[in-house]
User: What shape does this take?
Amino acid sequence: MSVTINLGAWRSVFAVPSQIVDEGLKYSDGVKLKVLLYVLRHAGEELEYKSISQGTGVNVTDIPEALDYWVSLGVMQKDGSLYEPPKAETQPVPVAEPEPVVEPELQPEEPPKPRFTVAKPQKPDYVFTAQQLAVDDELKFLVGEAQTALGKVLSNADVSTLLMLKDTCGLPLDVILMLIQYAISIDKGNMRTVEKLGVRWADDGVDSVEAAENKIRLATQRTKCYSIVATAFGLKNAGSPSKKQLDYCSAWVTEWKFSPEMLREAYERCVDAKGEMKFNYIDGILRRWHTAGIHNLSELKESEQKKTASKKEPPRNQSYNIDQLDEINKM
Assistant: This one.
């Protein structure tokens, strides 16, 4: 039995790379597929986000993220505003000329496989999440443990977050459970925080209980450093510090070993000079003190007294011409 397919109006077709179906279809949503199909259909044209939005119904603000998603999967590569297929590496063509015999060179070691680096991985949709929950025993276990720890019934969106962390980000179950417990310990026991930290852990290569314990230890240490600094500065309701602020505080307290008194002194000098607290300005003050070997108030006072005294001392070994002195006296 034979079958004939008449494409009719479909004869005008465009190519869709197989990689899209093989790798990107499972976790991509309708928004990302719409944008990709539209730009493939209009390949070679200079497209504005507005025209893509009009042709797909996708919000203009979601279009850059949709395009970058396909870049992160390696379906396309980006050069400025140009999106194009990834360029295959080409091997140089050997020249058919006699060459001297040389010792073979050692082959370089293969570079380590890149870690998970998608800035914002796509969570699976409602249908796929429900299907996986029905057949994936690990996901069932994870959901049950998470509900017990958080003390609530997880929504489908919450379950999709756990599925994303497990399958897309590749975090082991015990690491995800440690992550949930850590979020609870810092009074942020919600799935939004779990998702944010989980993606960060995956990107940092946290793939074992030992790595997770080390991550939690360092995070706890950095938080304590920020608490010491906030207390020294007299900050109330300091809120959540930024990563840069945590970096500063960790260096001041852990590496440079400044006391609360020295931290307060740097803070007050910053406010006197700038009229407000600026972490980068305070860092400059403390960095100069650390470089000069000054780590307490007595050393600071002694150093500044020496500088003041050196400015008041008259220049040494300065000689005057007798004729010049006579001219000065006549004035």
